[in-house]
Write a structure and sequence with these properties.
This protein has one domain (2-188). The chain has 6 helices and no strands. The chain has helices at 2-32, 39-58, 67-88, 94-126, 133-152, 162-188. The protein is globular.
Length: 189
């Protein structure tokens, strides 16, 4: 029986995890004003549109922030955690599920930003003027995040060290915000 539980847990983890990443990417695309005509962004929009259309009927945006996406992110993260705990034979507190879902969404967001910054930095060395859709997407995500650091950190003769400080800030956010949320959620669940 543990083999079946393990297999079910893996299926839930992969399917809902991928959908959660897609919804977070969709939210980040809107928040960071990434070009939606990009083929990769278009695929993510097509995957996330059905549930978002339903939620947008009831949940309006606020100051340019798509609250329906935020609610969907929290619902998918909480559902994933609930299903994984149920498969393992545990019961969960709804408040703990919400806090854990928030922590997981923030953690995934941090990892997406880290990967985008690393990817854009590597692409700037290998193919600095690439027009590939994935490269434009990486630059679309990383440039708004790096912009404040580029204002603070001087350019060292063509060497941009702002990604180092952005990565440091994201890692600090993970350690000071996300990890305490995970710990708090474990006490609530």
């Amino acid at each position: 029986m543990p083999y079946v539980q393990d297999a079910l847990g893996m299926i839930v983890e992969v399917l809902l995890g991928l959908f959660l990443v897609a919804v977070i990417l969709r939210f980040l695309f809107q928040l960071l004003r990434v070009d939606f005509r990009n083929p990769v962004a278009g695929a993510i929009v097509r995957v996330t549109n059905p549930p978002l259309k339903i939620l947008r009927r009831f949940i309006p945006g606020l100051y340019g922030i798509d609250l329906a996406s935020v609610v969907l992110i929290l619902l998918v993260a909480a559902l994933k955690t609930f299903l994984l705990l149920s498969i393992a034979g545990y019961q969960a507190n709804p408040g703990g599920l919400f806090v854990y879902g928030l922590a997981e969404a923030l953690n995934i967001t941090c990892w997406i930003l880290l990967i985008a910054i690393f990817g854009a930095a590597i692409l700037s060395w290998i193919a600095p003027h690439s027009h590939h859709p994935a490269a434009r997407l990486l630059y679309g995500i990383s440039d708004p995040v790096l912009r404040p650091f580029r204002r603070l950190v001087p350019n060292l003769g063509g060497l941009d060290i702002s990604p180092i400080f952005a990565i440091l800030a994201i890692n600090l956010a993970q350690r000071l915000v996300v990890n305490p949320l995970f710990d708090w959620s474990r006490t609530l669940v």
